[in-house]
Amino acid sequence: MISAATEQEYYRALVDRDRAYDGIFYVGVTSTGVFCRPTCPARKPTLAHCEFFPNAQSALLASYRPCKRCRPLSHPDQVSPVVQQLVDAIEASPEKRWTHQDFAALSVHSATARRQFRQRFGLTFVAYARARRLGLAMQEIRAGQGVVDAQVAVGFESASGFRDAFARILGVPPARAHSAQVLYAQWIDTPLGPMVAVGGTDRLHLLEFADRRGLEREILTLRQETGAAIIPGASPPLVSIQAELRAYFAGTACAFATPVAIAGTPFQQRVWEQLRQIPPGRPCSYRELAVRIGQPSAARAVGRANGANRLALVIPCHRVIAADGTLGGYSGGTARKQWLLDHERRAWGGVAVASPVP
User: Fold this and answer.
1) Is 260 among the domain residues?
2) Domain residues for 147?
3) Catalytic annotation, pick one of 50, 67, 70, 317
4) Within this chain, do residues 279 and 331 fall inside the same structural domain, yes or no?
5) Are residues 311 and 325 located together in one domain of the fold?
6) Number of domains present in the structure of the chain
7) Are 124 and 81 in contact (CB under 8 A)?
8) How far, in Å, CA of 128 to CA of 107, rounded?
9) Fewest beta carbons less than 10 Å away: which of 37, 68, 206, 302?
10) Per-residue pLDDT tens for 246-263?
């Protein structure tokens, strides 16, 4: 049963179209017989016409039918067919320089591609495709190909235009490509909304929910720390973490074996190491975690270290709660934290955690 206070909280999230609640609840509209996700663009019903459910299955069993606008049976913000079609086209010919005629051949309007790409990735289709082309050029130069050959291979007619674009996106001129660092970014759909994963050839550097507060600042800091360009692409750690996330959300496996790059102060690293020792379904308090690292008076510093974690779920900072049993803070939102703790308790056992105070 959902309490009256939680109903008010969910209704506020529904009216605000709060992305942090995607996957947390679904709303059935009694006047239409349709159920939606919180971010549905349709006109919002009054609270009296709302019935809230913890999952889509419950709404279906209550005889509601899925909304055709927000598609509640899919992942929140799941990549649209148009975006998927264009991403597949880029991967089929990553060296291609796109024109309006190419969009027409795919029966896609260039304005649609631009709008939907910006909504999904935070950059336009042209910028995405250019970054992919230049990443391919860097790979070819590192493999021993000449700069001019790489320039021609990725469709740049002007040598100066190639050098300028290469330096702007990858941070170094083509002649210094051998010494440059590159990290690859992918967007991974989950039941709680898309996550952004950033990894190199051998380690995962970042995993966060795409709507996390301060994500852009985290990515900028990562670029500064590593001196690397971050471009769309794939790498072995990104393939690995995607498979592990599928298993985690399915409730079939909770271990993350993908190698990770952990950059932080010695204190932060001690906290993060202890976080990885907390079993799923068995949350501990900030105070308990401070005791575990041998600094019982450092509960606040432990909280700050939690907030600095860039590897959500892999380093499970969501498993730390307040001393009174309530949730405390979480950059992804307390509703999402509650969902993760409940999911782990159901899948792997453990104790119930208090609901967040509205």
Assistant:
1) no
2) 77-179
3) 317
4) yes
5) yes
6) 4
7) no
8) 19
9) 68
10) 999 999 999 899 999 988
